[in-house]
Amino acid sequence: MTLTKKLTSVAMLSVMTTSAFASEKTDLAFDKLLTTYKVNPKSEQSYCYTDEKGKLQGTNVDTQVRLASVTKLLTTLWAVEKKGVNYRYETKLYIKDNHLHIQGSFDPFMSNEKMLFLVSQLNTLGYTHFDKITYDKLIQIFPGAQAHSDPYPLITRDSNGRNLKQYFNTATWSKVFKAEYDRLASLAKKDRFLKSVEFSADVVEFADKNPLVADVNAVPADVKVLTLASPEMYKYLKETNVKSNNYSSHTIFLDLGGVSAFEKYVADKFSLTADKIKLWNGNGLPTSISGKRYDNYATCAVMAELIAELKRVTETQGKEIEDVVAVPGNDRGTFANRLNSSDLKNTFVAKTGTLMHTSTLAGAMSTAAGFSFFGIFNQTTDAVSAKKVQNEMVKNIMDELGGPKVFGYQIEGFHAYDNKENVKNFNLFDEEPETDFSVIDGDLK
Predict the structure, then answer these.
(1) What is the pLDDT of residues 359-372, one digit of tens each?
(2) Which of 81, 208, 267, 359 is the most buried (most CB within 10 A)?
(3) Same domain, yes or no, for 346 and 394?
């Protein structure tokens, strides 16, 4: 399906002048690579980058192009702006006698790792059985959330209930599920998971309202309130981009408000309308509506503008763009087998994208001439050839800007729960064991 459409106006970066000034050298290189690797038609191939003066260079910079998973950079920008890099999803646990109520937060990583960690932590606190577990509409449990590249799963109240019943009834765990618990425990810091757990729950059901607390601002004295806090948002975004996680990216997008809210965001802040950018989802997969396919699209010029803004707004919050976007040559993920040579290590950040008829690459380069924001968009069914064009264009652009400049970066690693040290609980037990809960609005990290 052909999406390409030439725009009548030029979308510019805030740091740019009023038009794109094509670099003869890189334009010739792009044209030659398209010919060499037979990536056609040339009218549907686009690349762009900002030069040492912040001016936009490139070919077909204002042509609409499918974004594929490069979409995740836009979800990342929106999340950093609206939530902040240090935002944490907080899942509240209300406990009275043998009744647990779970108040969700639309956390995008309520996966096997996080839920089994929760079971272990509750065991640490002395809980082994609940007569009843209730849960609200904001909990979003997906066991495979940390390694998801398929279309968005169907998550319902019933599926949430089935998953909770499985997690909290250890006697029914299969050998495979027990092995999964052992695997996740082995990846954790010492003493983060108990060696073995024992739990049971009689009834697990949905509750439209919190049955234990009528007013969350006036919690009765006989109700304990615990908090399962997520890692900071920047860690979620980094993991999402490194692994190109379609589930977490779209879940974050939905939590931010979805399609209409994103349209308002880019219109209000960047004066961008649907002729320049349109997202149907937060991950870049095709969307089907009444049997018709719709793809996310933007222009290379718009993507350069928004990636520049991602770098700026991330820095204003005390982080760097490499804290939320993959670093080829160091972070593996989608860059395990490309652009990972030693001369490029720790010199740029990027996101890849691949669909049946689309191959994309976009990000930011650290060069001798300064940071450059770039995109390379190939609309073709030959993804292998397109990636060769992109890989060589990265080097061409780097050379044009004086060569790569290394920045400091170290991999942090990722867990769906916060992997910091435990905090002491002074209320629940006489012996004051170390735990991740405190009795009133405590944190499980």
Answers:
(1) 999 999 999 999 99
(2) 359
(3) yes
Contacts of 207 (CB under 8 A, 6+ apart): 101, 134, 135, 136
Say yes or no to pLDDT of 337 above 80: no
What is the residue whose two structure tokens read 């770098």? 311
Residue 52 located in a structural domain:
yes
Do the bridges between strand 129-135 and strand 423-424 make them parallel or antiparallel, or are there none, so unpaired? unpaired
Contact 101, 94 (CB under 8 A): yes
Per-residue confidence (pLDDT) for residue 368, from 0 to 100: 97
CA distance 194 to 387: 45
Q: 179: domain CATH number?
A: 3.50.80.20
Residue 8 maps to a domain: no
- For residue 46, list its beta bridge partners: 377
Burial readout 355-372 (b: 16 or more C-beta within 10 A, e: otherwise): bebbbbbbbbbbbebebb
SS3 state of residue 347: coil
CB-side neighbour CA atoms (13 Å) of 45: 25
* Residue 237, domain member (yes or no): no
Q: Which residue has the higher pLDDT, 344 or 157?
A: 157
- Over residues 291-332, the pLDDT tens digits come to 999 999 999 999 999 999 999 999 999 999 999 999 998 887
| Whole-structure pTM value | 0.90
| Domain co-membership, 426 together with 353 | no
Mean pLDDT of the chain: 89
How far, in Å, are 27, 281, 379 from residue 310 at the CA level?
Answer: 26, 19, 25
Domain carrying residue 104: 90-229+415-444
Same structural domain, 157 and 217? yes
- Indicate whether 35 and 158 sit together in one domain: no
Q: How far is CA 418 from CA 88, 116, 118, 313, in A?
A: 10, 13, 11, 24
The model's pLDDT over 384-429, given as tens digits with 9 standing for 90+, comes to 999 999 999 999 999 999 999 999 998 888 999 987 633 222 223 2
CB atoms under 10 Å from CB of 171, counted, come to 7
- Which tokens is 167 given? 């997690």
**DSSP states of 235-267:** HHHHHHHHHT-HHHHHHHHHHHTHHHHHHHHHH
Residue 243 resides in a domain: no
Number of domains in the chain: 2
Identify the pLDDT of residue 421. 35
pLDDT of residue 191: 84
Tell the burial category of 274 from Cβ atoms under 10 Å away from its Cβ (0-12, 13-18, 19+). Answer: exposed
Provide the CATH number for the domain around residue 335. Answer: 3.40.710.10
Confidence of residue 13 (pLDDT cuts 50, 70, 90): very low
Q: Look-up: residue for tokens 């647990």?
A: 100
